[in-house]
Automatic annotation (TrEMBL):
It comes from Bucorvus abyssinicus (Northern ground-hornbill). Belongs to the tektin family. It holds the Pfam family Tektin. The lineage of its organism: Eukaryota, Metazoa, Chordata, Craniata, Vertebrata. Residues 34-83, 354-381 form a coiled coil. Microtubule inner protein component of sperm flagellar doublet microtubules. GO terms for cellular component: axoneme; microtubule cytoskeleton; nucleus. It is found in: Cytoplasm, Cytoskeleton, Cilium axoneme; Cytoplasm, Cytoskeleton, Flagellum axoneme. This is Tektin. GO terms for biological process: cilium assembly; cilium movement involved in cell motility. Microtubule inner protein (MIP) part of the dynein-decorated doublet microtubules (DMTs) in cilia and flagellar axoneme. Forms filamentous polymers in the walls of ciliary and flagellar microtubules. Keywords: Cell projection, Cilium, Coiled coil, Cytoplasm, Cytoskeleton, Flagellum. Its main location: cytoplasm.
Length: 401
């Protein structure tokens, strides 16, 4: 208790003076240190601000550069897309031309085949493998070849249209991505410290695994453009080929069609000439038949006219054979009557011209029938070639597409 009530120790004035000086020195030191820290902090803040501003400015420039890059490639893609779309539309018109041309080949082929079938109905000697048939077969072969060629070209055109549309799709997808990227970068360029909806990201510096390098980014669009260019060039070459094919095929078809028509005209003229000659011969045969019939009638009349004299001579001989006794004399009259009978009988028997004339008449009748049949054959041929075939071919129209 006595110890608790003990008075606190007292210091010497020098100690007080020292303690006071130490407090002053310590405070001054702390103040100096604080001022130094403040100055360094301000300098650091100024440096950070400058760095931040510089970095922000650099980032903004990079954003602007990136925007320009995207706009450049977007414009390139837009140009190629417009070109490939236009080329595809033009190629579609060429496809329509091919389809119409292919359809236009069907009727000529049907007509050529019908002509060949009709000409199989010719009869007799007229069923001949003539120039018309040769050219009709050639025309059918030309048309079948043209149809096959146009069909292959149409398939090639459809495939090229598909490739054009695939290139167009790639360009559109690339453009869509470019548009989205440009919208994002435009948004980024518009951001400031006071922009609303600012927030911290969970992992702001995370690098996604599907990031591509700038070189790959440029190459991707460049490849799409090159593919579009390639397909457009292929399409241009195909259009030139289609033009050439359409021109050549229609010329071949027209040339062969005219060749067939000329062959028909020549053949019809040839058959008409033959028919006219046969009709002339028939008229001659008919005239000769009429003349021979008159000749046979005259011969028969002449023979009939000799019956009276023969009967008279024979009756006289028969009567004189009944003379009695010595009157049955071989006198001059008897010999002359015998001679008369023999002479008339011989003259009748010598008229074999009637048989020959009748044989000739039969020959003329056979010739008449043969000529009439041949004329009918020619008429049938003319009907087939001039009426059935040539009139059908008049409707034949080979158009250019």
């Amino acid at each position: 208790m006595a110890r608790l009530l003990q008075a606190p120790p007292k210091f010497h004035p020098s100690e007080w003076d020292i303690a006071h000086k130490m407090q002053c020195v310590s405070t001054e030191s702390q103040k100096s240190r604080s001022e130094r820290i403040t100055a360094e902090s301000q300098r650091l803040l100024d440096e950070i601000e400058k760095t931040t501003q510089k970095t922000r400015s650099d980032v903004n420039k990079k954003i602007e550069q990136r925007q320009e890059d995207i706009k450049f490639w977007k414009q390139e893609l837009d140009n190629k897309l417009e070109e490939i779309v236009h080329e595809t539309e033009v190629l579609l018109t060429f496809k329509t031309r091919l389809e119409k041309s292919l359809e236009n080949c069907k009727e000529p082929l049907i007509i050529a085949q019908k002509c060949l079938l009709n000409r199989e109905k010719r009869r007799g000697i007229d069923l001949v493998h003539d120039e018309v048939e040769h050219e009709l077969v050639k025309e059918a072969e030309v048309l079948q070849g043209v149809i096959a060629l146009l069909g292959r070209t149409l398939e090639q055109t459809n495939e090229q249209i598909r490739l054009n549309r695939a290139a167009k799709y790639n360009l559109e997808m690339d453009l869509k991505d470019k548009f989205t990227a440009l919208m994002i970068d435009d948004y980024c360029a518009s951001l400031t410290n006071n922009s609303p909806d600012m927030r911290y990201a969970d992992e702001p510096v995370k690098i996604e695994g599907n990031f591509v390098s700038p070189e790959d980014w440029r190459d991707f669009s460049n490849v799409n453009i090159e593919k579009a260019d390639k397909q457009r060039n292929n399409s241009l070459a195909l259009r030139a080929l289609i033009d050439s094919i359409l021109s050549e095929t229609v010329n071949d078809m027209r040339r062969q069609c005219e060749t067939v028509n000329a062959a028909f005209r020549n053949r019809v003229k040839e058959v008409k000439d033959a028919k006219h000659k046969l009709e002339t011969l028939l008229a001659m045969v008919l005239d000769e038949t009429a003349s021979q019939e008159k000749n046979i009638a005259a011969l028969k009349k002449a023979i009939a006219d000799k019956e009276g004299p023969v009967k008279v001579a024979q009756t006289r001989l028969e009567a004189r054979n009944h003379r009695p006794n010595v009157e049955l004399c071989s006198d001059t009259l008897q010999y002359r009557l015998i001679g008369e009978v023999q002479e008339i009988t011989k003259n009748i028997e010598r008229q074999d011209a009637l048989a020959q004339a009748e044989t000739v008449l039969k020959g003329l009748s056979r010739r008449q029938l043969s000529l009439e049949e041949e004329i009918q054959v020619k008429e049938n041929t003319l009907y087939i070639d001039e009426v059935l075939c040539m009139q059908m071919r008049e409707s034949l129209c080979i158009n250019s597409f």
